[in-house]
Amino acid sequence: MILSALLTSVGINFALCLLFFILYSVLRNRPSYADFYIPRLVAEGKFQEDDEFSVVKLLSSFKWVKRACQPSEEELLANSGLDAVVFMRIFTFGLKVFRFAGIVGICILLPFNYMGNQLNIDFTDLPNKSLESFSISNVDDGSNRLWIHFAAVYIFTAVVCYLLYYEYDYIASKRIAYFYSSKPRPGQFTVLVRSIPATSGRSFSESVESFFSEYYPSTYLSHSVVRRTSKLRGLVNEADKVYKRLVHVKSKKHPQQRFKRAGFMGLFGRKLTLLDHYEKKLEDVEGNVRTERSSIAGKEVPAAFVSFKSRFSAAIVSHVQQGVKPTEWITEQAPDPQDVYWPFFSASFIKRCARSYSFGSVGGLVTFSERHIKLKIVSQVITGYFPSLILEMFLSLVPPVMIVLSSIQGYIALSQIEKSACIKVLWFTIWNIFFANVLSGSALYRVDVFLEPKRIPELLAVAVPGQASFFIAYVVTSGWTKTFSSELFRLKRLFWSFLKGTLCWKSDEELEVPSNPYHSEIPRILFFSLLGMTYFFLAPLILPFLLVYYCLGYVIYRNQLLNVYAPKFETGGKFWPVVHDATNFSLILMHVIAIGIFGLKKVPLASSLTIPLPILTLIFNSYCRRRFRPSFKGYPAECLINKDRFDQSDPTISSFYDELATVYRDPAMKSVRYSEARESSSSPLLYGADK
Q1: Between 464 and 176, where is the model more confident?
Q2: 132-182 pLDDT, tens per residue?
Q3: Residue 493's closest CA among 39, 80, 45, 65?
Q4: Which residue stretches of 482-575 are H helix?
């Protein structure tokens, strides 16, 4: 890519970002768009409607940027939880890393690259020259200037490792502090017990009661046996849909004048008013729900949520083998009730194992290479903008697919599914975007490359620098514009909402507050981090664009966490080990490329002296795993016992114990009452506990 094409791409994306910024700032406070742009504030009753329009209010609309940056980390922690804090620490970590990298890369490495003579560039026509003039490719072979790049790689590695250790230590201590300051949570006192042995003449519930009353008489509190509710869940969902349609029909003027045919697809048969049709259908579905609920008592699954009087007791039970046979009474720490993935219990053990083991690598499901999207058009717009745009459209399909693949692997918690999907999306992105673009040929060719480890540094050294221009355009398109359009302006959701409202009936559904899609956003941030570390010494021109992305992301995602997203679950910062491992991988990839590039540039001593770097990085990563990873798998006994002792003086702990007996119940098992829908259009859908 020539410099003028890059400038064209930057100009287009900057204009789009500015447009989305202005539109969002103006629309976010309009009552008709409040549910869309600040749903969390609306749901919490913090939004004040004001239809008046003035120039002063228009100018004040841009103050959301200041309000997003004002809350402290402690306020963000109290508002959105530790996962949100860890998510924002990824941005602050990236800003620290690439601020240092930008100073070194732009002020030191870039001028030396630019002054090289390897490519014989005529600087009199600079706008029409290749971006390789700013890369290490332009440094003369065997030049002593390459030792500056060598020193930069070592110093940069040391800085990143120091920041990684600091962040890991900080988040680990934050995790403990958050545990001490948080209220009692059901998941801390509860264990999921699976593979309960069947006993003749006894139900699973009776077996659980007998077993834990005998072996844990002083700490056992209560239990809730899981039941197979897949059919009931489908009926409840169907009833919800019919109910909402009935409410919608009643909200219209003259509902008795709206008709539907009783026959096939509503096209044939006698006429019915929509009101009568949905009332009759709701009665039928409600009857089916009652029938299924009454017959589900005997559909027990050999699994139960068992609660104890202390966190320490639950931790002991979850880590100790309970029965003589290791395949019976299998225990693990239970997730919180809102985090439970209930469809997990609808599949048999054999099916779960088959799904888990049959799930293979997803990296090769789809491959995409820049050569597939290079259009033979001279236009700078096409060469500088559309390849990365098409690539981004393709990538938007990946996260939902990975969620589906993770959900069939046998995870019992939504947070586990999202974390698994996060890892899959990350490695899928690295393989299909980075390696697919830097290595030519088919997927099988790329696999053959890695079957010859000795050639990897050389091949990457040849291929990676040539793709710098594409990845700079990718950062601008996928980083800048997508952050504004998709995340801030929510363009796709806005378009879908408009299309649904235009072509379909609008339902008076309850306002739904979304949760932060960690499985798609964390891999995106980490992939940009990989690009920055890889091209830090190869093509430092990418660093300013990455710094702009991290600055934009910091402001925009803070705004989204405060105004749009509500936490769906809380893992206590368990996403950070993924960030740590991915960053170490990026460092090692940079080292491997450095070994190859110094060899190609005929500085074999520098190449040899770089070999210890990946080894030292692996040792550092191993040390951090042993030092910090146990704290992210569970809480130490010291913390559990201290927290249990503190709870003994809490006057609300007795009521909390009472709630534990019923809190782990499949939502499909809760009683549902729709009768108000036939009496009043404003009646809500009511849920209550079983009697």
Answers
A1: 176
A2: 778 888 888 889 999 999 999 999 999 999 999 999 999 999 999 999 999
A3: 39
A4: 482, 491-503, 518-534, 542-563
Residue among 156, 276, 86 nearest 543 (CA): 156
Residue type for position 289: V
Alpha helix stretches (DSSP H) within 105-145:
110-114
Residue predicted with more confidence, 118 or 425: 425
Name the nearest CA neighbour of 519 among 401, 601, 344, 688.
401
pLDDT score, position 299: 74
Residue 279 vs residues 276, 283, 382, 504: alpha-carbon distances, Å: 5, 6, 56, 21
pLDDT at 442: 44
Residue 13: closest CA among 559, 386, 437, 531: 386
Q: Show the DSSP H helices in 535-666 as ranges.
A: 542-563, 576-600, 604-610, 612-633, 637-647, 653-663
Q: Specify the amino acid at residue 637.
A: A
Token digits of residue 292? 């299924």
Measured CA to CA, the distance from residue 383 to residue 370 in angstroms comes to: 11
Task: Kindly report the three-state secondary structure assignment for every residue of 49-110.
Answer: CCCCCCHHHHHHHHHHHHHHHCCCHHHHHHHHCHHHHHHHHHHHHHHHHHHHHHHHHHHHHH
461, 597 in Cβ contact below 8 A? yes
> Token pair of 691, please?
């009697």
pLDDT(274) > 80? no
Instruction: Tell me how far CA of residue 277 lies from CA of 181, 191, 255, 489, in angstroms.
Output: 53, 46, 12, 39
3-class SS of residue 537: coil
- Tokens 């979304």 belong to residue: 514
Q: Which amino acid is at 133?
A: S
